[in-house]
Amino acid sequence: MSARIRVVSLVPSLTEAVAVTAPGLLVGATDWCSHPEDLDLVRIGGTKNPDVAAITALRPDLVIANEEENRAPDLAALRAAGTEVLVTEVRTLDQAFRELERTLRACGVPDRPRWLDEAEEAWTAVGTPGEPLTAVVPIWRRPWMVLGRDTFAGDLLARLGVRQLYADHAERYPRIPLDELRDAGADLVVLPDEPYRFTADDGPEAFPGTAAALVSGRHLTWYGPSLAEAPRVLGRELRAALR
User: Fold this and answer.
1) CA-CA distance, 109 to 69, in Å (whole number)?
2) Would you place residue 2 in the very low, low, confident or very high pLDDT band (cuts 50, 70, 90)?
3) For residue 83, how many other CB atoms are within 10 A of its CB?
4) Is it the case that residue 131 has pLDDT exceeding 90?
């Protein structure tokens, strides 16, 4: 690598991708950046409420962000302070691979990391699924919110043979009354452990008579090194619900 730059990440997925690929580049990350587990750097607030002054005090050469995870006013404030901001958009798996490469290049990483090759190989090996299962995929309760159109998690599930029933909804994360979700006729309810932490005791009871798959939110929604094991992990969790 040539001259080392200083990077602040506002996205947990991108934090892991940069930290695993080029240790030492990151000088700041959000409170939600939990991987790698030994990550030790300055915390600059949440993804939705970063401390702009704390970020600029770190004198980053680049802040990496995402159009869904982060708020436009915060990114505008960083730019107004003279900080370069790279904003990613990730709504499909293919887009994730492209944006990861773009982000790592912007961070000065000269070579494509092995984990990215392994992730592409893992998802290519999934192949074409047969007749899909139908599912509702809540991401929150009180109020109930589900995956809608044009989402990264929805694309991953489709590749694993799960068609979420609100994929054609006008909104990306619509609020749907529980009675409607129960009556949707889904084969399966998929309950990730983030952003809402669904558990065996908190979620499945709302869908009596419907198989419930408790899945890793990190493997369903993060785009980074976890993508290499995501097909195996998610596939195992989906199969377990149908036994």
Assistant:
1) 23
2) very low
3) 19
4) no
Alpha helix locations (H) across 107-226?
Answer: 114-124, 152-159, 178-182, 217-221
Determine phi and psi for 235, rounding to 5 degrees: -60, -40
Q: Where are the alpha helices (DSSP H) in 58-138?
A: 72-80, 93-106, 114-124
Cα 106 versus chain centre, distance? 20
Whether residue 179 is predicted with pLDDT greater than 50 in this model: the reply is yes
Among the residues of 9-71, which ranges form H helices?
12-21, 52-57
Q: pTM here?
A: 0.93
**Residue 38 to residue 22: CA distance in whole angstroms:** 14
Which helix (DSSP H) or strand (DSSP E) does residue 170 occupy? Answer: none
Which string of b and e fits 26-40 if b means at least 16 CB within 10 Å? Answer: bbbbbebbebeeeee
- Alpha-carbon distance of 237 to 216, in angstroms, equals 8
Q: With contact defined as beta carbons under 8 Å apart, do 72 and 49 qualify?
A: no
CB contact at 8 A, 215 and 238: yes
Percentage of the chain with pLDDT > 70?
99
